[in-house]
Amino acid sequence: MGLSNYELELYRQLQEWEETFFTSNTNDFVKTYDYWIEDTFSKLPSELREKIFTNIDQWLFYVQNGIQQSQNLTEKIDLLLSEARVKNNQVYSVNDLKKLPIEQLNYFAQQQISNHQLLSLLQGGISSSGNNLLLGVDLPLMLVINLRAVQLIGASYGYDMRHPFEMMVALKVFFCATLPRRFQKQEWMELLNEVRDVNHPFFYDEEEPITNTTWLTRPLIQAIKLWAIFMINHKKDKGPSLIGIIFGAGFNHSVTKKITLFAKHFYQYRLLEEKANS
């Protein structure tokens, strides 16, 4: 098929981003923190460690599968296809979106990015408003919002999340996006190789772990954030703390911004590679 001039320039920009984004200058504090996590988990029995990460993987998969089967996601994809048919009346399925210029797909993806960043901002502010129940569900809600965002960004570039393979790719994109920068490059390369080598995109028959000790940094940081908001709110005698609300909203927004931009770059990169090699 080949690439247009715009696509060639975008592909070049993505390659430059790939070369610079994963560069990480790890300081002594970060190295100590990584060592502490590794050392703590290494002291646990191997069966317990395996059980912990198996349960986390299963939980992520169930959440991902629940989002994929939800009526809301179906409605969002149907709306996306309706908008696409205005540009090309031959668009009947998610895969047909690849017939559109990538400029149009970027527009669809940016809509999802903006919507989910706003949703994350509002959710973070509400969860930090002083209600302990809302604060307690902050982490699950953040997980749902960001997994859903990755799915819809992938769908915007023509990848149907109803296929098990694409659902697992989206989950791995989320995992890679939430890793500390110093661990992302290896996962990025493995993910690209996986989508390059796929023989049949409708099935996924591999059984491999997704999460590991390197990923625990993100949940731990989220837990520290929740503890900080809890302490801020309980220092005030009356009403929620404005500082806590701003902090919670800004933190959640920054996480979603990081994840959605990473997902956008991945699906752009993947689509342009497919076009260049077809």
The dominant shape is globular
Order of helices and strands: HHHHHHHHHHH
Low-confidence stretches: none
Rounded to an integer in angstroms, the radius of gyration calculated over CA atoms is: 20 Å
Largest sheet properties: none
- How much of the residues is beta strand, in percent? under 5%
Bin the helical content: over 70%
Q: Please count the beta strands (DSSP E, at least 2 residues each).
A: 0
Number of contiguous helices: 11
Number of discrete domains: 1
End-to-end distance, in Å? 5 Å
Overall residue-averaged pLDDT value: 86
Instruction: Indicate the structural class.
Output: mainly alpha
Overview of the structural elements:
- The protein has helices at 5-21, 28-42, 46-68, 71-87, 102-127, 132-136, 138-156, 164-178, 181-197, 217-234, 242-277.
- By secondary structure, the chain is mainly alpha-helical.
- It has one domain (5-16, 57-277).
- The mean pLDDT is 86.
Which characteristics define this entry?
single chain; 278 residues; 0% strand
Would you kindly provide a brief summary of this structure?
With about 280 residues, this protein is mainly alpha-helical.
Helices, strands, pairings?
Blueprint: H1 5-21, H2 28-42, H3 46-68, H4 71-87, H5 102-127, H6 132-136, H7 138-156, H8 164-178, H9 181-197, H10 217-234, H11 242-277
Helix pairs in contact: 1-11, 3-7, 4-7, 5-7, 5-11, 7-8, 7-11, 8-9, 8-11, 10-11
